[in-house]
Specification:
Blueprint (H helix, E strand, L loop, with lengths): L5 E3 L2 E6 L3 E6 L10 H7 L4 E6 L13 H14 L5 E6 L1 H12 L4 E7 L19 H9 L10 H11 L2 H16 L13 E6 L7 H10 L3 E6 L6 H4 L1 H15 L7
Parallel strand pairs: 3-4, 3-5, 5-6, 6-7, 7-8
Antiparallel strand pairs: 1-2, 2-4
Helix pairs in contact: 1-9, 2-3, 4-5
């Protein structure tokens, strides 16, 4: 990540570009660098791209849930004085985007969801506590992607470090349980703003049928598939991912722009 992280009050975030605000929300085990290509591309073509660091490991344990992450996001957009913004989220970040939209429907003008939770969460099961087993963690990280080479040693080492941190493990499990409790199926039909769904055809975390269900429940959604792709399309196929988002933005959000 070549951009400088800003730290102001309770918030740490990246920001670049001018224009329609595009807020990027990372997943539970993800980080800001997962969106390097997205951030770089859209900050150069007329969008104010903002990526806050979500307090997934720093909230009090009893407040470590989807609802309080949404409250954090609400405080952040108020701090930045943002209105009429687009939310782009992967995995838990997509779930957060949906919950925030439910609570603040007049502020969100568009949604981009990729491998989003909110309808279906694949349980890590009883084997998750095998924290000391590096090879087990390595395989788990590799399985997130279609191309296992995307799971670099640096990425695997980072996850291995996180799952061996008791504080982070407890909060990871708390958020996973919260995601299951906050199922969005009944709320999606009320979200009438344009929605762009981008899914890996080989996603094993939120499988293709989850994308189909999102598409059927969100009344103004488009579903785009990426072949040979797992749970994080913006990392595995950044060029195709950006092309889908840009085409959708041009069609629904900023129609005067040219691709």
């Amino acid at each position: 990540m070549k951009y400088t992280l800003k730290k102001e009050g309770d918030f740490s975030y990246l920001e670049e570009g001018e224009g329609t605000p595009l807020i990027i929300l990372h997943g539970l085990m993800g980080n800001l660098s997962n969106f390097d290509s997205v951030f770089d591309h859209f900050s150069k073509i007329g969008y104010q791209v903002i990526m806050p660091e979500l307090p997934v490991y720093s909230l009090p344990l009893l407040k470590t849930n989807v609802k309080n992450l949404s409250l954090f996001l609400k405080k952040f957009v108020e701090y930045k004085n943002l209105n009429n913004y687009i939310l782009l989220g992967n995995s838990l970040g997509g779930h957060l985007a949906l919950y925030h939209t439910k609570m603040n429907p007049k502020k969100v003008i568009g949604l981009v969801l990729t491998g989003s939770s909110g309808l279906y969460e694949k349980s890590m099961g009883k084997s998750y506590p095998k924290r000391g087993d590096y090879e087990y963690i390595k395989k788990g990280v590799q399985d997130v992607f279609y191309d296992s080479d995307i799971a670099t040693k640096e990425l695997i080492d980072g996850v291995f470090k996180d799952v061996n941190n008791r504080n982070k493990v407890i909060r990871t499990l708390a958020l996973a349980k919260s995601a299951i409790r906050h199922n969005m199926a009944n709320d999606l039909p009320n979200m009438t703003m344009p929605a762009c769904l981008i899914w890996g055809e080989n996603d094993t975390v939120t499988p293709p049928e989850v994308a189909e269900e999102f598409h059927s429940l969100l009344p103004n959604s488009e579903l785009n598939w990426i072949d040979k792709c797992g749970h994080a399309p913006m990392m595995e196929h950044p060029i195709q991912f950006n092309a889908y988002v840009e085409k959708w933005l041009t069609k629904y959000i900023n129609p005067k722009e040219k691709i």
